[in-house]
Amino acid sequence: MKRPGPLLTMLAGLLLAVFMLSLNATTGTKNVSSTKKETPAASASPSSSPSKPAQSPSPSPTRTRVPVPNADYAGRTDDDSSAVAVAVHDGKAVAYFCDGRTKESWLKGDVKDDGSMRLTGKNGDALTGTLKEGKRIRGTVDVGGGHYAFTADKAKKPGGLYRATATVRGAKVDGGWIVLPGGRQVGIVTRDEDPSAAPAIDPETGAVTVDGQQLTALPVIP
User: Fold this and answer.
1) Which of 216, 17, 188 is nearest to 105 (CA)?
2) Helices in the chain by DSSP H: which ranges?
3) Cα separations in angstroms, 80 against 24, 83, 188
4) pTM of the predicted model, to two decimals?
């Protein structure tokens, strides 16, 4: 039997080579790994601290209105020439300036919440004052061309301001009285615009006799 010739040997080697190539193509393929770029996780933005609820502005404190007390105030001018009395009631005031002889003036006006006042009378007469701590009125009064500073302290009954008007023997009578602390009285009675010193009144009852006729002087209330 003849041995295989060189041709068969070459053929067998060729087949072996083809088989090996085929095996490499199937299992030896180089895997290309695809590198995935990891998308970085979005960093959470720093959360802002929760905003505080808007605070409504606190209401401004309401100023409590303290009414000026109802009272009478009586005193002397700084030069001790005249007396001044002021009656205050419900935010209004009536004042009387009197030298006890011939010079007098009635004045009236409003009292502000702070105790200040400007009262006016005839012929440009005026009183400007301030009630201090509800105890006294300090101010000035201009009457008949004169300028007077005064202090009027809070009066205790029967101290204060009194007035009487009537017709006596056909004459129009208008009398004003200031009862000072201690009981001293200063007043003028005008008969048909003719002033003169007033007789004393009974401070408890207000009784007074003018030209033989009994009158009653009443406390002045604005």
Assistant:
1) 188
2) 6-27
3) 139, 8, 17
4) 0.71
Q: d(Cα 103, Cα 192) in Å, to the nearest integer? A: 15
Instruction: With beta carbons less than 8 A apart as the criterion, state whether 174 and 96 touch.
Output: no
**Amino acid letter, residue 132:** K
Question: pLDDT per position in the chain (222 positions), as tens?
Answer: 445 555 555 655 666 655 565 555 555 544 444 444 444 444 444 444 555 555 656 655 555 556 789 999 999 999 999 999 999 999 999 999 999 999 999 999 999 999 999 999 999 999 999 999 889 999 999 999 999 999 999 999 999 999 999 999 999 999 999 999 999 999 999 999 999 999 999 999 999 999 999 999 999 999
- Rounded-to-integer distance, Cα 199 and Cα 188, Å: 8
Asked if the bond preceding 219 is cis, omega within 30° of 0, the reply is: no
